[in-house]
Design a protein that fits this description.
Jelly Rolls; 2 domains; five-stranded mixed sheet; 3 helices; 20% helix; globular
Length: 179
């Protein structure tokens, strides 16, 4: 083996070791899905929006943007449908937002903190397909996967938030993008 080949092999080994060490230190590295799109969005400036306290005051959110929702105290929010999880959290905040999607398919809704996420379609909770979260990661902290219909008003319900501001993204999965 030539010196040049040996140095290249040593460099690749050191580089791979450094990447593995960095990944071990990155609290956000353990997601089972590729969350590159979410991580890129969470690195951008968030659009400030006030979450609704009822359906009429719920702002419209658009996929592939980062929002920072100001969420009022949970007791002030009139949910369209009772949240799927109702663990009382003292001082929790909550809020509503609207979605109207142009394409039916899988969407991931990501938050920077622990909070319950529900999506309501036709006055019924949409069942989550999957979810995951990472302790110590806030870019994002929690991701929930849904199959969402297009062409109808959907209500996003956040509840049990521990902070009065929640950063959030809605990302369509590739199959939804290609339809």
């Amino acid at each position: 083996m030539s010196n040049r080949s040996s140095r290249g092999l040593i460099f690749l080994t050191l580089f791979a070791g450094a990447r593995a060490a960095l990944a071990a230190d990155d609290a956000c590295a353990g997601f089972k899905w590729d969350v590159t799109r979410e991580r890129v969005l969470f690195a951008t400036a968030a659009e400030a929006v006030t979450a609704g306290t009822d359906v009429a005051s719920a702002p419209l959110l658009i996929p592939d943007r980062l929002y920072e929702l100001a969420t009022p105290p949970q007791q002030e929010v009139k949910f369209q449908v009772a949240p799927g999880k109702t663990t009382p959290i003292e001082g929790a905040s909550a809020g509503l937002a609207r979605l109207r999607l142009s394409t039916t398919g899988e969407y991931r809704i990501s938050l920077d903190q622990s909070s319950w996420i529900d999506v309501v379609a036709d006055n019924h909770l949409v069942a989550a397909e999957d979810f995951q979260g990472r302790r110590g990661c806030h870019t994002p902290h929690k991701i929930v996967l849904y199959w969402l219909p297009s062409g109808e008003d959907l209500i996003l319900q956040l509840s049990g938030a521990v902070a009065p501001h929640v950063r959030l993204t809605i990302v369509p999965m590739p199959a939804a993008l290609s339809r």
